[in-house]
Amino acid sequence: MTYGHLDIFGRAAQLYDELWVAVFHNASKNALFSVEERVELLKETTADMPNVRVASFQGLVVDFCQKHGAGVLVRGVRAASDFDYELQMAQMNYGLAGIETVFIPTNPLYSFLSSSMVKDVTKWGGDVSSHVPEIVQSRLIERLRQE
What we know:
Radius of gyration: 16 Å
Subcellular location: Cytoplasm
Cofactor: Mg(2+)
Strand order of the largest sheet: 1-2
CATH superfamily: HUPs
Helix content: 40-55%
Domain Cytidyltransferase-like: 2-119
Number of helices: 6
Pathway: Cofactor biosynthesis; coenzyme A biosynthesis; CoA from (R)-pantothenate: step 4/5
CATH architecture: 3-Layer(aba) Sandwich
Structural class: alpha/beta
Order of helices and strands: HEHEHEHEHH
CATH class: Alpha Beta
Site (Transition state stabilizer): 5
C-alpha cells in the first residue's frame, strides 16, 4: 500500500458517508503479505479516516458490495492503460449486480507509483519513505531484505 492508495481512500472518503476498503483474497496469487497482514496495515494507516472500514473477501466484489450495502465501487486510475482494464471490470460489475463504478484519477504526485516498483526498490536497499507510510516501509524491509 502506497501513498497513492491512501490518497484515493482519503478523497473517496470525502465523497461517501462510509467507505469500505475491500482486500481480495486471491489464493492463486503469491502475495508478499497475507490477507490478514494487509487488513491490519490498512486499518492502521486509515485510522485517521473515521468513515473508512477495512475487510477482506473472496469471490466477486459485487457480492462484497451487496453484503455491505455499497452501491458504488471506487477505483483509482493512473493512466489510460489502467482505465481500459477498469472499464471492462466496471461494465461487468454493472451487468452482474447493477453496481456503479466511480473512477478517481490519481494525484499526479503518485501517478508513477506501483506496489511492484516499491517492493523492488525496497528489496534492493532503496529508500521508499516518501512513497509509503512508515509502518509499511518497516514491514517491507523486514520481509524483503531477509530473503
